[in-house]
Write the structure tokens for this entry.
Amino acid sequence: MFNMISEKEATCPYCWENIYFEIDTSISEQEYVEDCHVCCNPILVRLSIYEESITIDTAKEDDGF
Ligand SMILES: [Zn+2]
């Protein structure tokens, strides 16, 4: 069993910094907007969680996936 809250690193599509997202692993499919901790732009985050494997995709909010 792993924690309900996990951290995953992804690249900001605006400033290309690697930032960590806090992920609630109890929900397997998620899409939400979170501001970049570095440049404060709104990042569209898409998560797929399967067992202990987390896939994270990031995009600019205006562009979408
Ligand atoms: Zn950024």
About this structure: The mean pLDDT is 92. The longest strand covers residues 42-50.
